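Quick start: read one record
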Amino acid sequence: MRIYQDKLEFATRHGPLDVTDRVRDVVRSSGVETGLCTVFVQHTSAGLVIQENADPAVLRDLEGWMSRMAPESHPWENDAEGPDDMPAHVRRGRDPRRAR
């Protein structure tokens, strides 16, 4: 079995970021024609959403929905890294206590 590993780094920012082209470049450079691509996100408050991307409105709608479900204006207790700290954990779909 052939294994290829690479690391991608992205500047931190608020909101969705399309990483398709960068992941595609890694897959192409691997030389693997048939296999499995695993994407692991190391930051505890970053999430990965896999979806179709044909219409740019999809990302706008998704961000709007997440902003309503986990608004920064909510009085979150966990705000050590700023007002977007806890909303980012909620939007990611993981309990931040499990990151320890």
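The chain has three helices and no strands.
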